[in-house]
Amino acid sequence: MQHIDEIAHHGQEAQQLISSGIRFTTKMLTTAMATGEISLLEDQLTWAKDRLRHEGVKPEHLLHRLQIYSDVVQEILPEYQAQEINQFIKWMIQRQQELMNPRNEEI
User: Fold this and answer.
1) Is the predicted pLDDT of residue 107 greater than 50, yes or no?
2) Is the pLDDT of residue 44 over 50?
3) Please, which residues have CB within 8 angstroms of residue 65's CB and are 6 or more apart in sequence?
């Protein structure tokens, strides 16, 4: 919520929208880890790429929020748990960066 430039356009709903996004990401991450299906995370990122721009969320915002998520996981969880979770989040960060690369756009 400290990054006003990323959330101002959401107005008074910003906190609810960000919290909802974090909960959804956590559920998808938990499911992907439990099943070993990284494709769930891929689906989430491609959905976000197509949908969130209509909500005023830029790809850079999503990338920044994933980086914050990773930092918080590292900060609050025991090291072994943080490492296990962050390997998935780091994959999401890397994939988000790839999706943001204009050379990867389909023609």
Assistant:
1) no
2) yes
3) 6, 18, 21, 22
Alpha-helix residue ranges (DSSP H) falling in 1-107:
4-7, 14-35, 39-51, 59-76, 79-100
* CA 107 – CA 105 distance, rounded (Å): 6
| Contacts of residue 14, Cβ cutoff 8 Å, sequence gap at least 6 | 1, 7, 8
Q: What value does the mean pLDDT take over residues 76-84?
A: 96
Distance from chain centroid for Cα 5: 17
* CA separation for the pair 103, 64 (Å, rounded): 21
Q: How far apart are CA 65 and CA 3, in angstroms?
A: 10
